[in-house]
Design a protein that fits this description.
Structural class: alpha/beta
CATH topology: Rossmann fold
Distance between the termini: 10 Å
Strand order of the largest sheet: 2-3-1-4-7
Amino acid sequence: MIVVMLGPPGAGKGTQCELLGEKLALPHIATGDLLREAMARGTPLGQLARPYIERGELVPDDVMINIINEWLATPGHEHGFILDGFPRTVNQARALDQALARVGKGVDRVIYLSVPVEELLQRIAGRYVCPQCGASYHLRTSPPRQSGYCDQCGSTLTQRPDDRREVAERRMAVYFAQTAPVIDYYQKRGVLSEVNGAQSVTAVLDAELAILLTLPSRTHTRTDRHGDPSQI
């Protein structure tokens, strides 16, 4: 099963992809993590992507397509995967279709998480991280005990450049201008399902699983809350 998770920044795609990956026994790949790793290593692709990410703009299609094609060529996801953060343009969606078609596969379901813009901005701008131990915090939902400092190691918390409010607002504008057509692309193909991402994490996950359960001729084992195996 190949699942694509769509939604604006802050919609909870990463969290949901991790949970779905556990339920469906599928690997989860976040292109944002791939980009940040490339930037940290100083690779050519990372250097190309850095200024776009720091300005809250979309990374050029050719860079993103190359990163995804490299990942698709690695082992470990032959039986499917959950893709987070790609595609973000119609050109990328077409490139993904072409890459999968070359190995006789295709996207089985696209889940679009819909969340009001102001809620998204609050989610993003409230995120902070410890640069030393990697602990993460949110000013609204999981604040540190002492404002501005990590509970675990006492280091001063920092905010990713693309999480600053002004950058987050720009990211939203870019998303709805350039990524929204991808929703239409998949809707026309009949593989798009919309889920209310403003619900609780558990409610969103249940809605996603209900959608994936309806897919024909798919046999992926999951474990429900009571530990009972079922086929999806």
